[in-house]
Structure formats: structure tokens, C-alpha cells
Amino acid sequence: MPEQHPGLAERLATVREGVSAACLDVSRDPEEVTLIVVTKFHPASLVAELAELGVRDVGENRHQEAQAKAAELAALDLHWHFIGQLQTKKARQAAQYARSIHSIDRERLVDALATAEVERPIDAFVQVNLTEDPGRGGAAPEDLERLAERVLETQTLRLRGIMAVAPLPEEEHAASAFARLAGYSERLRSLAPDAAAISAGMTHDYAEAIAAGATHLRIGSAITGKRPDPR
Ligand SMILES: *Cc1c(COP(=O)(O)O)cnc(C)c1O
């Protein structure tokens, strides 16, 4: 297949090297870290090209777009990670293609997913808000345990861990925000020892996330290039 997205292979290689280097810096095994390539706003052809380059994990943040790409690329059997705010009324549909949902942020969403028809449980990450702004997405840290208990009671979900987006750099340095996230992860593990995953780290802060113990990186633009305008 001709390369339709110039530079993609090189950028992917650069990020993979960056991830390995950041792991080695803090004496972590790169094998412990899953790189999810965030392909939002990019066409299915870019996802197909990533698959040819060996990518299996892709992230999307809008239901309709994700649903369409997952349908178009069904034959590739990719692991689709849903990482954006999910409307309760779309939850059952997202459960049809998403193997992981990183944005479990309220009990009503868990209740909706509880009624989904799934072949196997969906990997669930409870999203916590690292800022004081409720509009940023994620549950308030004080709600973490209650939400996690609810996920644990739900047959269609398997609690994997915690997820967060760093505050803006001018609000707080990523390293200090991710240190707090590591503390929330410990709280979660004292409730559910298997829920040890930490989904954190994007283009500009993945090294800090790795240093704080992230197991799932969600990296978009460093690999895909600049995002086209949303359609
Ligand atoms: C877009 C997005 C990413 C990837 O962001 P980049 O800065 O392009 O790496 C990661 N996580 C979430 C929740 C996103 O919406």
C-alpha cells in the first residue's frame, strides 16, 4: 500500500524511542507500557496505515467518529480505546466496538454500560479530575471509591485502573499532578488490587507520566501530526 500519510512511520518510530528512553530513565521496562495512538479527527486511512506499522491500540474521543472508523476497519481487529466524554445515551453503542473505556466518570454511565450487550467485559478506567474545574471531565477524587465500587459490581465491566488528563502547564506542572494521580491509583488498588493500570501521558507530558508510573499512554499529535479541523 502506498504511503498516504507522509512522515507517519518516522514519527511513530520517534515516539516509540522516546517512550523507551523515558522508561529507561526511571528504570522501568518499556514492555509494561501500552502506547495508544490517538487518531481522533484523522481518517480511517491513517488508522489503517498505523496498523500496517504494527499499532494495535488506537484511541478515539467522539462516539460517532469512533463508531464509523471501527466499522470501516473491523477486519483489522484493533483494540479501540474510548477516551473522551461519553454520553449516557451513547454508552451501549460505544460498548459494541470499544474494548476499553477510559472515561468512566459518573455512576449513571456505569449503570448504562451495565445493560450493554458485550461478548467480554470492557476494560474500564475510572477518570479522575486533576483540576478544580468540573468542566474538565473526570470524577472528583473524593468520589473515586464510590465509582470504583459501582464498576466492580458491574458484570459488563472489568476495572483496570485510573485515568487522568494533566492540568494545563500554566495551572500545575504535569509531574506534580501525576504524583497525585499515583496516590489515587494506590487508593484504587487498596480497594481492587488488580486495578493497577494508570492511563496518563499525552504528546507533551508522556515522560512525566512514565516517571509517575503510567501504564497506558494516549499519544496523538506527536505521531499523527497536526489534527485536521473537526468534521
Ligand atoms: C486528544 C487526546 C489525547 C492525545 O493528545 P495529544 O496531545 O495529541 O497527544 C490524549 N487523551 C485525551 C483524553 C485526548 O482527548
What can you see in these coordinates?
- The chain has a single domain (about 30-85, about 95-225), classed as TIM Barrel, CATH 3.20.20.10.
- It has an eight-stranded parallel sheet with strand order 7-6-5-4-3-2-1-8.
- About 35% of the residues lie in helices and about 15% in strands.
- About 40% of the residues are buried.
- It is an alpha/beta fold.
- The longest helix is centred in the N-terminal third of the chain and has 18 residues, at about 10-25.
- Helix 6 (about 145-150) crosses helix 7 (about 175-190).
- It is built from nine helices and eight strands.
- Bound molecules: pyridoxal-5'-phosphate (PLP).
- Pyridoxal-5'-phosphate (PLP) binds near residues 38 and 165.
Q: Topology, pairings included?
A:
Elements: H1 8-25, E1 34-38, H2 44-52, E2 57-60, H3 63-72, E3 79-82, H4 91-94, E4 98-104, H5 107-114, E5 122-127, H6 144-152, E6 157-163, H7 174-191, E7 197-199, H8 206-211, E8 216-219, H9 221-224
Parallel strand pairs: 1-2, 1-8, 2-3, 3-4, 4-5, 5-6, 6-7
This protein binds pyridoxal-5'-phosphate (PLP).
Family: Belongs to the pyridoxal phosphate-binding protein YggS/PROSC family.
Keywords: Pyridoxal phosphate
GO molecular function: pyridoxal phosphate binding
Strand order of the largest sheet: 7-6-5-4-3-2-1-8
- Number-wise, the strands total 8
Look up the CATH topology. TIM Barrel
Count of the domains: 1
Protein name: Pyridoxal phosphate homeostasis protein
Domain Alanine racemase N-terminal: 34-228
Modified residues (N6-(pyridoxal phosphate)lysine): 40
Family: Belongs to the pyridoxal phosphate-binding protein YggS/PROSC family.
